[in-house]
Every structure is written in C-alpha cells, then in structure tokens.
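Troubleshooting log. The previous structure file for this entry was overwritten by mistake, so regenerating from the original sequence record. Sequence copied from the archived sheet and checked twice against the printout by T.R.
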Amino acid sequence: MKIKYELKKVEKETKARLGLLHTNHGTFETPMFMPVGTLATVKTLTPEELKEMNSAVILSNTYHLWLRPGEDIIHKAGGLHQFMNYDGPILTDSGGFQVFSLAKNKEKDIVEEGVHFKSHLDGRSLFLTPELSIQIQNKLDSDIAMSFDECPPASATHEYLRKSVERTIRWAKRGKEVHNNPNQSLFGIIQGGAYEDLRKFSALETTKLDFDGYSVGGVANDGESKEDMYKAIDYSIPYLPEDKPRYLMGIGDPIDIIEGVIRGIDMFDCVLPTRIARHGNAFTRYGKINLKNAKYKEDFHPIESDCDCYACKNYTKAYIRHLITCNESLGGRLLSIHNIRFLIRLTEELRQSILEDKLLDYKKDFIEKYHQG
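Regenerated output below.
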C-alpha cells in the first residue's frame, strides 16, 4: 500500500496538527522528527538504537546511494529495508539538494532535461534527470520518494525563482509519469523562496498533480533568514490539502521545529543532531552546550537529568567530554543518541501540547528556557 495520513486534531489557537501516518512498516504519530541516514545508516547508530529512541521514519539520500553502492546492488539485496536491516519506514530524498550544490555554472549546468555536475568522489561528469531520480528511488524501494526539484539559492531573484518554480513543476510531472513502484508513495515539493505569489503558484500547480504528500522546500539554504523561512511555510500551507502529510525539508533546530508545527507542518528531518554531536555539542533544554568546554571536566551529571536516552541514563558529561577530547568515537555516538532522542522527545511533547490545546504555552516556556543557555 501507499502511505495514508489521518488527521486527528487541529490545535485551537494555531494550525498545528495531530495525525497518524499509516505506512507499510507501521503507523506513527505526527508531528515527527526523522533522523537522517544519508548512506543507508544514521551515522554510528544501529537500527535497534533508533527504535529505542522511538524513531519512526528515517531518511536516506538518493544521490549518495546512486554513487555508492549503486541502486542495482540495493535492489538485489531486496531494497533499502533489507539492505540496512531497518523495518521502519524510510524516505529517500531526490538528490536535488546535493546535485545543485555541485553544479558550478547554474546557467549552463541546469538545463530543461536535468542537471550536469561532477561527482564529489572522483570528479567525473554526471547527469541527473527527474526520470532517473525517480527510477533510482523505485529500485531503492523506500516507503516515500521525493520529486526531483531545483534548489535555488536563498539570494535568487524573483525572476529566477519564477522560472525555477515552473521548471520544478514540469520536472515533478515528468517524475510522476515514470514512477512505477506501487508500494512507494511520491511527494511533490513546493518552492518559491519567500515570495507569496510564487509559493501560492507552486502549491496550486503541484497539488493539481495529486501527490501522496507535499514538502515545503527551499527553506534550508545557506544565508536564508528565519523570517524568510517562516514566510515560506506561511505562504505554502494554505494551499496544501488537509488529508496529506506536510514535510519541511532539512530543518532540525528545536525552535524551528516548534515554529513549523505551529504553522501546520507534520514531518521534519535534518543532519544537525548527528553533525553537532561529532563536534562535541549537545542539545539541552537550556540551549546547546559544547562538552569540549573545560567546565565539564569534573561534571559528573548526565547531559540532562530528566532525559530518558541511553547516554543520559548511563554516562556523565565528564566521561563524554573525555571521549570527545580523546577523539574516541563512542563520544560522538553517545551525543548522537542524546541529540536525536532530544528532537524526537520534543515532537512527543508537541503532540501532547496539541492534544491539550496548550501549544503556545509550551512554545513560550521552551523558548524562555532555551534562551537562558
């Protein structure tokens, strides 16, 4: 079957939604945070550890898996679920974000047929089209595939974005036409920067294609302001169907997740929790902390006393700091466990606040504490 979204409740004071996402690999509550497993693994963590964190959907990357080990090998293995031994739902992104960052000359490399770029591994010339992106994802056999879209820079002009949005819609249609995995859902992506007219046009035209879900894209670009990010959501959401899931791509900052939920977003993903973990950083209720700081050398308390993750239940900041400063991989593993669980626990609390119609109170309390740090 394809995924199915069931809307259970809309919070009284906001656009926040409580829902259920039915998939071939179980039913899960939304809003949810999705850990990123770029190369068919959430860095340093096992599927069993992800389950202990109450992880639901995880994300893998089409571009990277296309290059290594290749979609045919994963297909022979029985698909991504078998290949990586994860029995929960998996979402694959289209590869667009990576491809556009590798395309050097935007005017020459981005053509109507697709995108020319060079491999980040060996520099060889590659060409990715909307059709090929979908065909790769069909073989990966993820639960959710993403349409191939153009990812314009935050600084793009209205005229550039208009042409980009129109091309993305044409690409979405081409990808949908070749999509042939009956058990895999396909999401469309809304673009348009922080321009209300372009977001409305993108949403209206993309929803005409009747995808299984919709993503608000173009909000995780370098140089984009928080204000523009929130505008992009606000300008897109009114035109998306209530009976389909809404996904905000590439967002993992705790406050941004809260703001996204308030605006009607159901799904989030980001590499942030594992990336900052590898550099010794941890999310806490009182802001991010850097365990490389000398003040944690003799701190024999957990990262957070009320956290239920494996790291907080078993180890101290002093010990994790020791691991990080000695370049022991266990340090990054423990911080990754904590950071992912922190964001998943955040969405659990957001769901409870929606249920009780207390989301704005939750936001106020969370932000006050987070900024204290």
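The two ends are 46 Å apart (CA to CA). Archived copy saved in two places this time.
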